[in-house]
């Protein structure tokens, strides 16, 4: 049975016309009196929710969400420029972790926030795989070392950006130094379906959101591209990580409580900017 993409409360609607103005695909159009209606010739609705959030009278709902969808904005300026600058410039890769697990409810809070990260056409292609058991994280490291040794034996190091480092990484592993997971208690991976062309960018955005959000919970993170590459190439690594069949790994993030505190922000090159006009 047909269900319209949006539901309009005619009693609450003031016919201001804002919903039609903010709808990118003109799903909502206004008649001569300003009253909104659905355009029968419009392309499919992306369910972005702009009609909801810009409606001053809360007269619109997205079909299928019920009462869950209306969350009022508490402040027009939730953070100051100085606060956001401090957050972003204080972000560091964490490679020393406490032997302390993160409560599951903390992860649930993080994912509840990060699900609002933007995605192309609001397709929301990102799925999260949480390697919560620390022993499995260690098994991932072992599987990657086995894969690296195989790449060394087959003389395929040139196929990987850091392939020249594989011999060093495997030697350090034998000495008891983990340069794969760095002793992180947990590991997060984003993955997507094989036919999602926007997924790589969507995943990077979502992972960046989670990385910054995690700082508010006292957590440290580190991007682990080598784990993502290994999951692409090694069936053994995929098996240990229990990735669903037919999916593509997109990003990997180590996460845990930092063992060390940093005291400064390192220098960076100036922003490279070209002005046009």
From TrEMBL:
Cited PROSITE patterns: 4FE4S_FER_1 (PS00198), 4FE4S_FER_2 (PS51379)
GO molecular function: oxidoreductase activity
Record flagged with keyword Oxidoreductase: yes
UniProt key word Oxidoreductase: yes
Keywords carried by this UniProt record: Oxidoreductase
Source domain of life: Archaea
The protein's name: Nitroreductase
InterPro entries registered for this protein in UniProt: 4Fe4S_Fe-S-bd, 4Fe4S_Fe_S_CS, Nitroreductase, Nitroreductase-like
Domain 4Fe-4S ferredoxin-type: 4-33, 34-65
One of the Pfam families matching this protein, by short name: Nitroreductase
